Predict the 3D structure of the following.
Amino acid sequence: MGMSSWIDISVPLYTGMVHWPDNPPVRIERMKNIDEGDVANVSAMSMGVHTGTHVDAPIHFVHGGRGVHLAPFEALIGPARIIEIKDTHAVKVNELEHHDIQPGERLLFKTLNSTRCWRTDDFIEDFVYISQAAARYLSDRHVQTVGVDYLSVGGFTTDAEETHQALLSAGIWIIEGLNLSAVEPGIYELACLPLKIVDSDGAPARAVLAAR
Ligand SMILES: [Zn+2]
């Protein structure tokens, strides 16, 4: 692996940041404060596990599925391909067909979301998502991992459940909430490590890429 330069594709976590509308807000608070006479600064945080850059575990949509603490390192560390999606509505089969997708691939989709959606703390409803047909296409091709650049692989009003189901029930690991605006399409080394939260349906993660 090239040690040259790591590119951070995670989004920053802070109080008041964007989150899925019916999920809890992010609150990060200083509970002890040196400026107020405490011996150390100590913070507490509260957030939903599907906020910011995070990994979805099968149990998020699959009854009896694995929790995020069982995420295999192989799915989240290794070569990954950034595919640029031109469609400004959804990732669709007709566009995926041009990319010669192979079994075992880790795919990260760079869409309009990366430059559009993270500039605001307001939730963007019409973000680019993966259509349920495209999700089934990806599971038919036995990809290993799928990453997207906003808060869900599925859409806000359509294909939310179907797209998650198609990917998670096929054993595909999902990374959501990436910011790929600084990355050109191509093959990189990916490292993404979700927090080891026992039996959780998701977990915040740090994700980085290195040029190969
Ligand atoms: Zn999620």
